[in-house]
Amino acid sequence: MTINFISDLHLNPDEPATTEAFLGFLAGAAREADALWILGDLFEYWAGDDDLASPFNAGIAGALRELVSSGVTTKLIVGNRDFLLGKTFSQETGVDIVSEPIRLMLGDRQCVLLHGDALCTDDVAYQQFRLMVRNPAWQAKFLAQPLAVRHQIAADLRAKSEMSKQGKALEIMDVNADAVTRAFRDSGASLMIHGHTHRPAMHKLAVDGGTSQRYVLPDWHGHACGIQWDGKALRNFGSR
Ligand code: LP5
Ligand code: MN
Questions:
Q1: Contact in structure between 95 and 76 (CB atoms under 8 Å)
Q2: Ligand showing the shortest atom-to-Cα distance for residue 119
Q3: CATH number of 3-237
């Protein structure tokens, strides 16, 4: 059983190198595995499933559909940029959208999968923002607005987010150690894979007397990269 884990591609029409890397990956290396897990932030942002009509998004959706049709089970956990991916996207692509945290056995070890933003509990302003935008009532109200308005709001939020990040210490934007320990305990896992922080690494830590490993996925920036389970072990692929 071979599984690829990827995240933080941030696909958008202004970064054609990343888009090409992704389309190449879907048509090639991804097909050699049994499954693909996308752990959030596939898109730079997602304004709603009606945006599947844009040629860019339709192209990505079509390529995912082909991967799924070729027999590769494809699952997705939403990220802080594309949490509005929904049922229509899932139906059009055949990609199964699932809610974090996900528990998955890798060999004889329990693994927990997340996007990673929920672990950044020191970033109080972000966690408040997250609580607001993950609220279904809030989302329904947002999605009821015309697509052009939603794009405008998303662009505005991106600018606000970039401004706000300039005033935050780097440690605040990383995972909180207690939140990580809690996620290991709650899931009973000794392996964790997540993205979001764009700080690829493998961290070993002691949890309840055992050694746990936290794998952080790399962001793409023009290069297909991630972590692969080859049936025996986890290892990086495509990292720069
Ligand atoms: O994304 P990244 O990695 O640069 O920064 C994140 C956190 N920021 C975000 C916000 C997104 O970038 C915004 C884009 C989402 C588009 C979604 C599509 C449309 C749906 C619209 C729904 C609103 O996730 C950033 C973290 C950082 O990760 C590290 O973890 O620090 O958090 C912030 O910067 C959030 C700010 O601290 C607080 C929010 C400011 C904006 C508040 C305005 C609310 C008005 C809402 C009106 C609709
Ligand atoms: Mn993210």
A1: yes
A2: 1
A3: 3.60.21.10
| Ligand 2: centre distance to CA 85 (Å) | 14
Among 18, 238, 210, CA closest to 109 = 210
Backbone angles phi, psi at 63, to 5 degrees: -65, -35
Q: Would you kindly state where each structural domain of the chain is located, as residue ranges? A: 3-237
The mean pLDDT of the chain is: 97
115 C-alpha to center of ligand 2: Å?
Answer: 7
CA distances (Å), origin 165, targets 108, 116, 155, 158, 173: 40, 17, 15, 10, 8
Per-residue pLDDT of 65-88, as tens digits, reads 999 999 999 999 999 999 999 999
**Percent of the chain whose predicted confidence (pLDDT) is above 70:** 100
The model's pTM:
0.97
